[in-house]
């Protein structure tokens, strides 16, 4: 049998996996959306597992486009919550995000000669049905929570930009208008082919906003020497909230299997993810440090709300509005496609018109729920902290590490790697549990404050 072959035949040494649920026929019926790709039998076919033809530069740009986004806007506020300790938290989160991104892809290849397709399949392979459920919940929380948060920002920005013009509508009305407008591409397109282009435009918009903050915030600080700006070295009570916001900024793990699959040489993945997250972290520091330095405890989220009225603030608001409007269809279409696959709303089962009708109903209801959520929870900063704590702490810091140790074992790891894994899991739990509690308390306070006005 092939099991007697030595492991040295693999290009990347993979420790013998611990006993885990195998992909039996019964399991495949239980998880219909999970398939395991096998390597081609022909050795002449260099591109095994159906990998794409992209280079490391393509993967790098995809990572930057996916990860660098609206989380940037909340990072100065994260420093205000945690003090200058936020610099250390950011560096730790950066190292942990790179490590989890690398080991997540290793999990795809834990079984020699086979490749798992996505995040949920990793959870299933590691912890069976329980892992599948947890991975699915975190995945869908991310896919559903982010567009709701983006609708909040889009409605708020449109209200601020046009409040003194003929288009001076309320934030609620603008949220509904944006949601209705974005329903059109959802209904007219079965899938979203322009994801990479759309993400690239979004990343460019983020970079423009970062540039505005880097220039405008220090200028505002030095133009008002009479203003007292208070900074804190460390605020321990704000640590979980700061960590949750930073975790939101490093979200993107659930897309990594697809980005890696497009690589012509998968062994280059570690360089792509390290370079991509390094670029994102640089952008984050360029926003967080000048923003917190200039406004201290009074820093707002999004950060451009702290900037003085003028061209800089207007430009930042416009480009981030463009970014979120382009990003929302990526999340809603991804969520809808997975739900349609889960509910088997396909042409083979329902026919062409039946499938289109089912798709229209699912996507319309999805957008309606998102709009209602954005209307009733219009608090960008605390909403971001909640999504970061609930979904991203698990997706970035917890699940990849636990699945990696489960699938490849822990006895074959160096002690310092195990210590780093333990620290990552510990911080992930702190951010997930206490970050969620703090975010819920903050949202309750927001609602009470809103009701008194």
UniProtKB/TrEMBL annotation:
**Keywords for the protein's UniProt record, in alphabetical order:** Amino-acid transport, Membrane, Transmembrane, Transmembrane helix, Transport
- A GO cellular component entry from the record: vacuolar membrane
Which InterPro entries does the UniProt record give? Answer: AA_transpt_TM
Question: Where does the record say this protein resides?
Answer: Membrane
* Membrane topology (UniProt): Multi-pass membrane protein
Q: Which domain of life is it from?
A: Eukaryota
Where would I find the Amino acid transporter transmembrane domain in this sequence? 53-440
User: Which Pfam families would you find in this protein's record?
Assistant: Aa_trans (PF01490)
Primary localization class, coarse: membrane
Annotated coiled-coil segments of the chain: none
Q: Give me the ranges of the annotated region Disordered.
A: 1-33
Gene3D superfamilies for the chain: Amino acid/polyamine transporter I
Q: Where are the transmembrane segments?
A: 59-79, 85-109, 130-153, 165-184, 196-217, 229-250, 271-295, 315-339, 360-380, 386-405, 417-437
One annotated GO molecular function: L-amino acid transmembrane transporter activity
**Protein family:** Belongs to the amino acid/polyamine transporter 2 family.
Q: Which PANTHER family match?
A: AMINO ACID TRANSPORTER (PTHR22950), TRANSMEMBRANE AMINO ACID TRANSPORTER FAMILY PROTEIN (PTHR22950:SF692)
> What is this protein identified as?
Amino acid transporter transmembrane domain-containing protein
What's the source species for this entry? Circinella minor
